Structure of Quinolinate synthase:
Amino acid sequence: WPVFAGDIEAILALKREHNAVILAHNYQTPEIFHTVADIVGDSLALAREAVNTDADVIVLAGVHFMAETAKLLNPNKTVLIPDAEAGCSLAESITAEDVRQLRARYPGVPVVTYVNTSAAVKAESDICCTSGNAKKVIESLGVNRVIVLPDEFLAQNTAAQVPNVEIITWAGHCEVHERFTPEDIRAVRESYPDVVVLAHPEAPPEVVAEADFAGSTAGMADYVGEKRPARVALVTECSMSDNVAALYPEVEFVRPCNLCPHMKRITLPKIRQALEQRRHEVTIDPAVAERARLAVERMLAVR
Ligand code: 13P
Ligand code: SF4
């Protein structure tokens, strides 16, 4: 990436100077993912690695809820997000008050909250989950009725894996994955009859039904790494294909994919500025943080 060489060199030096680590989500662009990132992965891996790091500063190359999760797990470290506006349609879809009202409506039913939510919403929850562990988290509760919020499609796709549990959900959607249709998948299969289709469980169930496999971003990357299909379509955010394609040049990656405008707010110049100016620092009201941390820690304890 010669065009970014100046920023990359500066970021590497700033990381050493500030004892900083960069955690990057799989949806970051390749020039971030393959150069300055120390740890890359899905939401679950980034949360786990946030606990392990001994850096003083964590730069989260991802969206705001991921930076908040890192801060929850590292209250004494500086956590920076390079663009404070990097949000998420799922996190926007529900408030802490909404969760309190759901609890009043379904007394005693445990609340499983997707990590794609604000710390205030996590604080009202019993336990968090990601797309990589939703089934295990629900099973760990040993109940036959559970509220899974706010992603309606993740809840429905997970419900298919836990047939003995009734799942009450919320009408939140990922603006990137809700746009995929079964026709998109049929069209790609028509063009490439041998294509292997991998979908993210934030996509609607009728889309997942057309895919060969559904899993978190790490689940999809692992599938390609293990099976090395000749041709694959990753029905998810576009940078995912670019990042995995760089690792397996023998695999052909075909579309459809959609861009996440929030993830794309993070750029190398903004990461450089974040380190130079120690901004934008993530802070969480301590009263909220304490309860939200519990929900995240309970999730991390599920293996
Ligand atoms: P995972 O990386 O956990 O699969 O999450 C996907 C996503 O949309 C994160 O914003
Ligand atoms: Fe949120 Fe979807 Fe973007 Fe992930 S891809 S940050 S779930 S809007």
